[in-house]
Design a protein that fits this description.
Blueprint: E1 2-5, H1 8-19, E2 28-30, H2 34-42, E3 54-60, H3 64-68, E4 76-81, E5 89-92, H4 103-116, H5 129-140, E6 150-152, E7 160-171, E8 177-187, E9 191-193, H6 195-206, E10 209-210, H7 212-227, E11 231-240, H8 241-244, E12 255-262, H9 263-266, H10 268-277
Parallel strand pairs: 1-5, 2-3, 3-4, 7-10
Antiparallel strand pairs: 6-9, 7-8, 8-11, 11-12
Helix pairs in contact: 4-5, 6-7
């Protein structure tokens, strides 16, 4: 991800451009935390939303914060709208820590999250938790890079299947783990791939904020594109902690997803051979 440092000069310029057409007496409520600083710079910051004419923030990212404030029926403005510009960039404002990376800032956010839920962040067991949490996310969400090396198939045109491939992922809805095993099969056309690459493919697409259905499709579509085979079949079976630990709290429930492409989709005998092999 590209990191972009926002200077004070840029902050002043953007703020002037944002509010130049508004009356000088306009009052602003700043969204915690960055918006509070921006509101303060205007000289017309107020303590409550009820007192404000406008709600102001440093940036609009996904738009979810702006959506939350709709209920107050106040205009919402920001210095930067990332839906329009600087998409995919990590913005660092001058009031944030500007180290070589932003890990300390992220760790502070984890500390505040723990404090919000009533945890004593100074007790022995939690002192290093924010650092470990950031380290875990950096490691898990960055699987090793690899090349999809292929070889001449030497005329081999029967199904190749790899079963019981373990995987772990994080539910994008609750950031709770889900994990299980995968089965990947393909029928070569002219190319075959190193066996480890099938497991690598599953690892690459699972080590993200994901849902199981998408992982299944992404694996199949990737292999279909890279190998140009006669068919690809993928099946994942997993337990979801977002279902076991919360909500309906149903334990030992497994979810299976399948994606079939090519002969596995169109040819009944090929599909049946795959299904028989994974029973």
């Amino acid at each position: 991800m590209i990191k972009t440092n926002i200077t004070w000069e840029q902050v002043y310029y953007r703020l002037n451009e944002t509010i130049k057409d508004l009356p000088k007496e306009t009052k602003y409520y700043g969204v915690p935390r960055g918006g509070q600083i921006v509101a303060g710079i205007t000289g017309n910051a107020v303590n409550t939303i009820e007192e404000a004419d406008y709600i102001i923030d440093d940036l609009i990212d996904s738009g979810s914060t702006k959506e939350q404030y709709k209920k107050h029926n106040k205009p919402f403005i920001a210095l930067i709208d990332k839906r329009i510009e600087l998409q995919g960039e990590w913005l660092v404002f001058p009031w944030e820590l500007q180290n070589e990376d932003t890990e300390e800032t992220i760790e502070d956010n984890v500390i505040r999250l723990l404090q919000y839920f009533g945890e004593d962040v100074n007790r022995e067991g939690l002192k290093e938790t924010p650092k470990r949490f950031v380290k875990f996310f950096k490691e898990f969400l960055n699987p090793p890079k690899w090349n999809c090396t292929t070889f001449e198939g030497e005329g081999y045109d029967e199904m190749i299947i790899q079963t019981n491939i373990p995987f772990h992922s994080l539910c994008e809805h609750h950031i709770a783990p889900f994990f299980g095993t995968g089965t990947i099969a393909y029928i070569p056309n002219k190319k075959i791939v190193g066996l480890s690459k099938l497991a690598r493919t599953l690892e690459t697409y699972s080590r993200r904020l994901q849902n199981q259905e998408r992982i299944t499709m992404q694996i199949a579509e990737f292999l279909w594109k890279e190998l140009e085979p006669k068919g690809v079949a993928v099946q994942l079976t997993a337990k979801h902690m977002c279902m076991e630990m919360r909500g309906v709290k149903k334990h030992n429930t497994f979810t299976t997803t399948t994606k079939l492409i090519g002969l596995f989709k169109s040819d009944q005998s090929a599909r049946q051979e795959f299904l028989n092999a994974i029973k």
